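Field reference: "sequence" (input) and "structure" (output). Example, DUF3499 family protein:
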Amino acid sequence: MLGPLAQHAEPHSYDLCADHAERLTAPRGWEVVRLMPAFEESGPSPDDLSALAEAVREAGRARPAPAAEPSSVTETARRGHLRVLRAEGD
């Protein structure tokens, strides 16, 4: 039976893209039943909105200060998250 994409994990079901669903053939003696329910546009679910809000909160939280570097190392340049470090003897 072919129908809309599953809402939960189903151990004996597989989701197919439209191209593959159209070309699917059944073994000899079997029959393919296609369910074509009307498509209903749905907006974001409460779970989607909660996940987005939590991601924004997480991005805005203060991060702990990085561990102090040994005094023999000096930062000489920085580009984004990359740093160039030079030991005192170099």
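The longest helix spans residues 46-60.
The chain has two helices and two strands.
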